[in-house]
Amino acid sequence: MTTTRTLVPALDINDVTLELGDGDARIRALDNVSLTVMPGEFVTIVGPSGSGKSSLLAVAGALTKADSGTVHVHGTDLGRIRGNAAARFRLDTIGFVFQSGNLIPALTSADQLRLMGRLAGNPSVDPAPLLDAVGMKHRAKRRPAQLSGGERQRVGIARALVNSPSLLLVDEPTAALDRARSHEVVQLLAEQAHRADVAVVMVTHDHEVLEHCDRVLEMVDGTLSPYTT
Ligand SMILES: Nc1ncnc2c1ncn2[C@@H]1O[C@H](COP(=O)(O)OP(=O)(O)OP(=O)(O)O)[C@@H](O)[C@H]1O
């Protein structure tokens, strides 16, 4: 007997439109965008400045509501949750990684992870295995100012994984890094996606790192299409 396993997409964006600004200055940041990302898949979005990449991450991360279309994260319709429920959902289901790691200056690497666990109602988080997974166990007691840019980014990735998210949204993770560190960080994201079955959606201007991604898409004027070199 053959058994078929139905996989729920980690992210399912269907025909989404988002308009920003007021009056004559109103622009269509997302124009009928659709995107499905499965668990364990690492998708990257490239495209010119102002093309709508950050808007897409904001909609996928339940930070901005689409004007039309639907967004499901791991089966939950983001259009149907708001306020505290949306904040709770973000904390439990979505991880965010930003340009420079966005770490809290006063906290050690280990405490960055503990705090994220506590916020999600998971106070017994053990930071050691996650820091180990990103090659940062030996920096557990250091604060951000005592870390290199690449190390901060690694801690940021470990922190984003603390609550075992279904979806990891990553905005320009290599902006502050040299070429070697950029490859390391993006390779690490690919490893985490494949090992922990997390869907990763990364936005980048850095075409050097695309080799590590499973799928590359291009955003131009609010529309998404496959990227061709
Ligand atoms: N709050 C806002 N109000 C009005 N327009 C906005 C707002 N935020 C973004 N925009 C406009 O929406 C469009 C898409 O912006 P977005 O930040 O998504 O692009 P991006 O591709 O991420 O750009 P970059 O690569 O420079 O970060 C741009 O034309 C931008 O000027």
UniProtKB/TrEMBL annotation:
CDD domains, sorted: ABC_MJ0796_LolCDE_FtsE
Domain ABC transporter: 11-229
Nucleotide-binding found in the keyword field: yes
PROSITE patterns: ABC_TRANSPORTER_1, ABC_TRANSPORTER_2
Superkingdom per UniProt: Bacteria
One Pfam family linked to the record: ABC_tran
GO MF annotations in UniProt: ATP binding
InterPro entries noted in UniProt: AAA+_ATPase, ABC_transporter-like_ATP-bd, ABC_transporter-like_CS, ABC_transpr_LolD-like, MacB-like_ATP-bd, P-loop_NTPase
Swiss-Prot/TrEMBL keywords: ATP-binding, Nucleotide-binding, Transport
Entry protein name: ABC transporter ATP-binding protein
Organism listed in the record: Herbiconiux aconitum
